[in-house]
Specification:
The structure holds 2 protein chains of 2 kinds. By secondary structure, chain A is an alpha/beta fold. In chain A, the strands form 2 sheets. In chain A, strands 1, 2, 3, 4, 8, 9, 10 and 11 form an 8-stranded mixed beta sheet that branches. In chain A, strands 5-7-6 form a 3-stranded antiparallel beta sheet, covered by helices on one side. In chain A, α8 links the parallel β10 and β11. In chain A, α2 runs parallel beside α3, α3 crosses α4 and α9 packs across α10. Chain A is globular and about 65 Å long. Chain B is α/β, with parallel strands linked by helices. In chain B, the strands form 4 sheets. Chain B has a 6-stranded mixed beta sheet with strand order 1-5-10-11-12-13, sandwiched between helices. In chain B, α1 crosses α2 and α2 packs across α8. The longest helix of chain B is centred in the first third of the chain and has 12 residues. The radius of gyration of chain B is 18 Å and the shape is globular. The chains are: A alpha/beta, B alpha/beta. At the A-B interface, α4, α5 and α6 of A face α3, β9, α4, α5 and α6 of B.
Amino acid sequence: MSTDKTMTADQVVGRLGSGMTLGIGGWGSRRKPMALIRALLRSDVTDLTVVSYGGPDVGLLAAAGKIRKLVAAFTTLDSIPLEPHFRAARESAAFEMTELDEAMFMWGLTAAVHRLPFMPIRAGLGSDLMRVNPGLRTVVSPYEDGEELVAVPALRLDAALVHLNRADAFGNGQYLGPDPYFDDLFCEAADTAYVSCERIVDSAELLQAGAPQTLLVKRHSVTGVVETPNGAHFTSCAPDYDRDEAFQSAYAKAAADPAAWREFTDRFLSGDEDTYQAAVAAFAKEGA
Amino acid sequence: MNAKDTSGVTRAEYCVVACAEAWRGDGEILASPMGTVPAIGARLAKLTFSPDLLLTDGEAMLIGDVPAIGGASELIEGWLPYRQHLAMVTGGKRHVMMGASQVDRFGNQNISCIGDWEQPKRQLLGSRGAPVNTLNNPTSYWVPRHSSRVFIARVDMVSGVGYDRAAAAGKTATRFHEIRRVVSDLAVFDFDTPDRSMRIRSLHPGVTAEQVQNATGFPLVIPADVPFTREPTDAELRLIREVIDPRGLRDREVRA
């Protein structure tokens, strides 16, 4: 019998430490491990290097002053193009940034997964990513073409947080939505990886929900599994739920103003996950 | 057909036709339009002269039909998650039309930030896929409000690589590099000049070359005889107005 890896969100955060390099799965405002992020906000863990296809995960951690360095190609709320906390943090130079391209980011994770120092790619040359990342190097093809390519360094992670639709207690994770994003790469590129999910099910149930290729994350790359219903809220977690646009809009509005943001954090982010979900339910009722 | 349908062609509709023309002759590749008018243009191209184009639903599905803007597809023909989408980019099987917060005379584009990158005056999206796009698949740009703040002498951050920067970076950068078109609400531009600097390809009817130059922060190449952007056919107008954009979302992006 495999090891049961179920734990709570707070237990996950208890295993993280200040100064870590933390990868966060999902993409923009889609399937972000928000319940784990909220648990992280309640902790003393700080000084993080965050590696993310950024959305409100980056915004919330930036607002809480927990980011020392951000590695990202963008940070967006999708339906709201500019993430207000990210904007404010960048405009006050609140953290260091390694700005990469979406493809460079993927190849950096891929290099880490395969234990390679870098991957050679045709992206970045000629762009100012070479200027703002003075550490980026190129490599010359040893073959006849002799092309000079960008050597994207491996994005190795101390820990990864991802959110999936289903998982079993052993860490086999399943996505049921349209896109796996890069969650499997995040888990495999990390020394420790934590999967939150809408529902923990028996292994036998996984294939009742979807075809074998929905089994994205394998248990060998997972350290802990957390059941967090509505745990990606307010980002999307198709097909379980769509993005909560009304809530996201309220988030973005509050984030643009310090007084409104204090009210928002008092109302939604001052308690535990159950308190958050209850406040979200009350917010939805008001709008109905 | 009511009176509105036979009325004069709007500026937004010329922009749609100009965007559609960017995908002419592209064959069986993915059209990736960003913005409402480019999205209408790509669908118009698919419904008329570029029927083999692939389109997505904006996320991970390839759609086999051509729904109205804002409407749902009823025919999924394929699956294109981000990792495969990126392979279409690097394989050159895609022509993207991106936005541009700034663009210069050699087609360098910025969507990252305004001001100094270390501490921007205004943080924008980040460079997203612009670096990989421009070096790997044909790239065009759409600017819904032409101004000298967008068409600028020097971009603050090169996200998308233009012709001068690609040439300076060497053959790996130039091998698959192509900036096909820039379409604005005033005119259409290309880089078919000896030094690869931006040229007016056509003016939208009602616009003068002088007007475009005055709204541009660098000298444009202006041929002696600049044509007007072509008229949509009756069939194209009907497709734009009744099939692809019956709600008139194009008019929100380009004012009349």
